Amino acid sequence: MNNDIRNALLDLFSVCLEVNGAGQYHAHMSYSAHINGVHVYVVPAATDYGDHSYTYTMEGRAYLDDELGGTPDEVVANLKALSDRVSEFLLPAQEEAA
Question: Can you list the pairs that 13-16 forms with residues at least 24 positions away whose Cβ atoms lie under 8 Å?
């Protein structure tokens, strides 16, 4: 994994933390070593996790190797696209604060 991919992963994780900190949504991010990929999903903060019938407001995956994810540039672009999708959940909190 090159530094560009590593930095794109850190950016994605940071966006997830920001969304969680804003309080209206929970952004989840997990890494699966057996597929060398990340899974991200967002649900409303009021989600009842005990009720397993809840649905994701947003969901996405990105693979980090060349076999499934493409070239390093493609992997970075996919991670950036995921970060952009997750960051959209910051807008409602920013609008409410304004």
Answer: 15/83, 15/86, 15/87, 15/90, 16/40, 16/86
Torsion on CA atoms 78, 1, 8, 24, rounded to nearest 10: 80
Q: What is the pLDDT of residue 96?
A: 62
Confidence grade of residue 93 (pLDDT, cut at 50, 70, 90): low
* Count of CB atoms situated within 10 Å of the CB of 43: 19
For the chain, give every domain's residue range: 3-90
What pTM does this model have? 0.90
* Cβ-Cβ contacts under 8 Å for 40 (sequence gap 6 or more): 12, 16, 27, 28, 29, 58, 59, 60, 61, 62, 82, 86
